[in-house]
C-alpha cells in the first residue's frame, strides 16, 4: 500500500510516500508538518527512508522521523549530512513488497533518483516528472536542462508503457495512462 502522507497539508512540502509491506519505507520526508506523527497513526515501525533528492522540501522532516523511528536514510550522495547510506545507480532495493531499481536522474539536482518496480508497474519520479507533462525546475543550483532531458529520456526507455502508477514529488499521483505523462514531460522539457 502506498499513501501520500503530505496529502492535504497546507504548508510548502514535497509529497512523502509511506510504502507499507515487507519493508515499510518512507520515500521522501517532506517539510513543514509533523510527518512522524502521521506515520505513527498508520504503522508502529518504519524500516527506512529513501530520498529522491536532498532539496529542503524533501528532507526537512528527517530529524523528527529519525527521532521517532531510529531509521537510516538512503540517498544517492553519501556525503550529504542527511544521507547515512548511498544508493547506487541501478541498485535494487525493497520498498513495501516489491523490488525497485534506482535510477540516477540528474537535471533537477545532481543527487536525484527515481525508483521503478517493473512487476507492479510503479515509478517514484521525485521532482523529475510531474502530472500532465510538467517537469522539475532547472533554474536552481545544480539544475541542468540538458541533463534533465537525458534523465527523462532514460526513464522513458526503462519504464514499461503499461506503467500503472506514477508518484511524483509534488502534486497528485497518476494512475491512468501514467506512461503518457513521462512522454509529455520529455516533449515539454525540450521547449
TrEMBL record:
Alphabetical list of SMART domains matching this protein: Lactamase_B
Gene3D superfamilies named in the record: Ribonuclease Z/Hydroxyacylglutathione hydrolase-like
Lineage, top ranks: Archaea, Methanobacteriati, Methanobacteriota, Stenosarchaea group, Halobacteria
GO molecular function, one term: metal ion binding
One Pfam family matching this protein: Lactamase_B
Domain of life the protein comes from: Archaea
Domain Metallo-beta-lactamase: 13-170
Cofactor: Zn(2+)
The keyword Ubl conjugation is assigned to this record: no
Keywords, sorted A to Z: Hydrolase, Metal-binding, Zinc
Keyword Membrane (UniProt): no
Name of protein: MBL fold metallo-hydrolase
UniProt source species: Halalkalicoccus tibetensis
Amino acid at each position: 500500500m502506498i499513501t501520500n502522507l503530505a496529502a492535504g497539508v497546507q504548508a510548502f512540502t514535497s509529497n512523502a510516500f509511506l510504502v507499507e509491506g515487507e519493508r515499510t519505507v518512507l520515500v521522501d520526508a517532506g517539510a513543514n508538518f509533523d510527518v512522524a506523527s502521521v506515520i505513527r497513526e498508520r504503522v508502529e515501525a518504519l524500516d527506512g527512508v529513501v530520498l529522491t533528492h536532498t532539496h529542503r522540501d524533501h528532507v526537512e522532516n528527517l530529524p523528527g522521523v529519525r527521532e521517532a523511528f531510529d531509521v537510516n536514510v538512503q540517498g544517492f550522495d553519501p556525503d550529504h549530512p542527511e544521507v547515512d547510506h548511498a544508493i547506487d545507480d541501478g541498485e535494487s532495493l525493497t520498498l513495501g513488497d516489491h523490488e525497485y531499481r534506482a535510477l540516477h536522474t540528474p537535471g533537477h539536482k545532481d543527487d536525484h533518483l527515481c525508483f521503478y518496480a517493473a512487476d507492479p508497474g510503479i515509478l517514484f519520479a521525485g521532482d523529475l516528472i510531474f502530472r500532465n507533462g510538467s517537469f522539475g525546475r532547472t533554474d536552481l543550483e545544480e539544475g541542468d536542462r540538458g541533463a534533465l532531458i537525458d534523465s527523462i529520456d532514460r526513464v522513458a526507455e526503462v519504464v514499461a508503457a503499461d506503467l500503472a502508477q506514477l508518484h511524483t514529488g509534488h502534486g497528485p499521483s497518476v494512475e491512468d495512462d501514467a506512461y503518457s505523462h513521462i512522454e509529455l514531460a520529455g516533449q515539454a522539457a525540450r521547449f
